Amino acid sequence: MTTMNPRGADGRWTVDAATDDLRERIKAGEFSPADGSQGQLPPAATLGTQYKLSRNAANRVIDKLRQEGLVETRPGNRGAYVREWSPLVFLPQTEFEAPTSEDADILTRLVEAVRRSGETRMDGVTEEEASERIRHRLGLRDREHVAVRRRTSIVDGVAVHTDDSYVPLRLVDGTDWMAPGSVARGTNQVLAELGHEIVEAVDELRPRPTTEDENARLALGAGSIQAIEIVTTGFTKDARPVQVTVLALPAVRNTVVYKRRRPVPAVEADE
User: Fold this and answer.
1) What residue ranges in 144-271 does DSSP mark as E strands?
2) From the candidate CATH numbers 3.30.590.10, 3.40.1410.10, 3.40.50.261, 1.20.58.100, the one assigned to the domain spanning 88-256
3) Which tens digit of pLDDT belongs to each residue from 168-191?
4) Model pLDDT for residues 32-42, shown as the tens digit of each residue
């Protein structure tokens, strides 16, 4: 029976180190049969021997991978199976593309393009005092309140990222932007109808660990994992910031892709 080489600083395996190693083994296809059938991880007892962990600790490793969406367990079946699921390719630049239908938001367009199933879960619509970073991006006064829409995007049954939007409350109080459920025509369209159409967006990206709130919303369990944060500030045609959207995308469930195109010179375009 194979024993894995320890990666810990003290020469011992930990639950987190074993989880990282087993995750890489899964991604490398170690447990994927050549016939294309669904792969299965070794039993917890076997993994415990490989990583020199107790059976309970090995079960915690499996549970962490299950929370990440990499494996699944089945009632009545022993062991865990490699989940047939690949990260969502997230394309922020598609925000301003024409929708395929009246209520097709950016998530709908992304999953339709690759024949996957997606939905948006509303986690709440509230009003609250703006935090310092939101207040700074929106140019708000001290203690000014914002309206907040908190959503979670789900692809193929897996919660892939959180999506929280902040708008000055004075702009949308009493409007459809504050509706408790989904808005069919989209909240950006509501802003446009109110005279605050977003025509430009500036994205800021940075890596960071997930928060406890995001772990709960994404069913990640305890313990932070690496995520990509995208903070998007939307501006009107007169360069006025009206909306900030914060997305937290766990790296194991998302790949962020930006596409760039070289402008065609006028002479070349006329030929």
Assistant:
1) 145-155, 158-168, 200-209, 226-235, 241-250, 254-256
2) 3.40.1410.10
3) 999 999 999 999 988 888 899 999
4) 887 767 788 99
